[in-house]
């Protein structure tokens, strides 16, 4: 029997797009996680596509720009885990305001940074005790993996400072690129900081995907992107902590 990706996972921004497909494929995996926490900012709203699924998926209200919402979500998850730790957080919720230099002002920069960087930072902070608990409960105390304890920050190729000259003219996107480069630094800082706790932290680029954000011209369906991401997620070890990989497992230069 295939081994389980992990016992428990929180996916933020799982209303639609990549987050929704992540939850779907986690549920449909041969040995699904026992508990999947689907973070949605409006779990009962009309746009919410994620559905409660037997006991496996539990929707939690996670408005990732609100410290109160994050704190409440961590309490709810802690209660549902009944003394166990949380193995995996996928910080998927994100926004993009396509903005050239002329179109970008303070508000655009701050709004996108708040969702794409401050949210994942606060989530890491509030859920840190639960991740530590999961890491401590793992039998192989020296190894790192998503089945033990990990944070995956969903980043993008457009965050890469090295490859910016190759793709800047097609997608200028100042707020988005700058925020995701900062998210990568958050990944690096957390990877260093949480090594001592046995928590793996990495950034993952899903490819260019057909979602509201990616648009209809994107070459990848959510199903294709996420099935690649799942293979990467299951294969991660300590050598991958602090890296930026794409949905096929290829390294992207910072
Ligand atoms: N699509 C691509 O080609 C592509 C490429 C590279 C990276 N990415 C990254 O992949 C991730 C998912 O993108 P996507 O294409 O699935 O985007 P999407 O279709 O626009 O979906 C974004 C999701 O994030 C949620 N969200 C946004 N702001 C939030 C907040 N403050 N609190 C909680 N949830 C929030 C949205 O919730 P609501 O439903 O409530 O609006 C939605 O569920 C993002 O981090 C994005 O940067 C996407």
Automatic annotation (TrEMBL):
Gene Ontology MF annotations = oxidoreductase activity
Question: Which SUPFAM superfamilies does the record match to this protein?
Answer: NAD(P)-binding Rossmann-fold domains
InterPro entries for this protein: Fungal_SecMetab_SDRs, NAD(P)-bd_dom_sf, SDR_fam
- Gene Ontology annotations for the cellular component aspect, listed alphabetically: cytoplasm
Pfam families cross-referenced by the UniProt entry:
adh_short
Looking up Gene3D superfamilies in the UniProt record yields: NAD(P)-binding Rossmann-like Domain
Membership in a protein family:
Belongs to the short-chain dehydrogenases/reductases (SDR) family.
Any idea what this protein is called? C-factor
State the species of origin: Cyprinus carpio carpio
